[in-house]
Structure formats: structure tokens, C-alpha cells
Amino acid sequence: MVTSALNSKSPAGPDPTEGTENVKTLKHFPPYGAMNGHSSGETCPTCRGTGRIPRGHEDQLVAVIPCNDVRLKPRRTTLYVCFSMVLCLLLCCLILFFLFPRSVTLAPVSVLSVMVYFTPGSVDMRVTNLINISNENFVPVQIIELNVQGLVLRAIVGTTKITNMTTIPSCSQKSDTIQIDLSITDKGLNEYCKSSSIKIHTLFLELQMTMNISYLSHTEQLSLDTFEYIDCGANSTIPHPMR
Predict the structure, then answer these.
(1) pTM for this structure?
(2) Rounded Cα gap, residues 89 and 115, in angstroms
(3) Contact in structure between 193 and 200 (CB atoms under 8 Å)
(4) Which end of the chain is more exposed for a tag (fewer CB within 10 A), N or C?
(5) Distance between CA atoms of residues 98 and 45, nearest Å
(6) Residues with Cβ < 8 Å from 179, sequence gap 6 or more?
């Protein structure tokens, strides 16, 4: 009978492909256990053979990886080191370029006016000069004080001191006016300046300027000697250059 024939057949055998898949799985994922060289290894006490770390124990466990693991071999190390060195060198050059101290110059421009006052024993004058201050630095320059000394025939006839002057911005120049009061008491110069027979009473005046400046956390002193000619016999408001 067909029914008995079907019943008499033996059950189907194991699938051959299933064994191949198990072998491949064991090659890629070996059983979690102690590495003692025996086929029947002991179960791993950490994960208990599951291959998973219990939650909350990540900071208490240490992973062991082979020495030839690719994660232990840094890649492009030479490139990163060279790039870092070039970047540091570039930053240093930029800092030196912008913070390297440059010159600050003090230059005379012209005599703006000379006011003359006669007294019985002296000739008093107020001389107004225009000066130019140039700052070539990339930082502002603070002017602390300016000292001006006037000399006629190598004799000091007047001094002035100016403090709390303005700040010169970076890479710029600024003009400023200074006034100095002179008093000539020499008898010969008095007669020369008060003489009515002389139309132009030319007098050579020497100005010694000393300026103290501060920038980049250090102070510096600038000095300048200039000569100018003035008329000590009459008032003059016509600007003329200084030398």
C-alpha cells in the first residue's frame, strides 16, 4: 500500500550545508572561552560565553588585542607631524612679523607763528611749531611726555614739557603743535631785536626735542635736534619750514 510504503521510509538525514555554515561561523567567531590550547576550553568568566560585556562594567574591564592589530599602527604619522611643524612655524612667523618692534619717527614740519613781546630788559617770544609723528608698528604707541628745549647761540632761552599726549594708532602718522616760550635777556640780542633800523631781525633758534613713548610693554626715547629761523623784531604768522 502506498500508505505503508510512505510510513516505511526512514526520516530525512541532516542537511550537509548546515555543517559547512557552522564551520565558517566557528572560523570567524570562535567560542568564547579560556585560551589554554585545548579544544574544550573553559567558559569566559567575563561574558560567560555570550560574547557581550555586562552593562555598567565597561570602566572596569580591559580589552586584550593582538600586537599586530591594525588599530595599534598609526597611519600618516609623518604627514601629521610635518603639517603640525609647518603650522607652528607659520604661526611663529606671523607673530614675529606683527609684533616685531618697528621705528617711530619724530620729524619737524614748520614754524606756524612767532609772537614777540618787548619788555625793558628782555624780548619774550612764543613760538608755535608743527611736528609730525609716524608709527610704523602694528600696535598703537602711547606718547608719555615731550620735552622741548630752545637754544640761541648755544644758550638755553626756554624749555617746555608736554604730558598726556594722544596715542598714535598703528601704521599711521599724526601731526601735533607744540608751543615754547623764549626769553632773551642778552643785552646785545635785545638791542638787535629792538633796533628799528633793521627791517628783518633774523634769529636762528635750535630746538632739542626728547619724546618718551611706550608700546609693546616697553618704553623708548626719541631725540631730535632741529634748527629754524625766526624774526625776533615783529610778530609773524606766516608758516615756514624747519630744518
Answers:
(1) 0.63
(2) 59
(3) no
(4) N
(5) 64
(6) 126, 127, 128, 129, 160
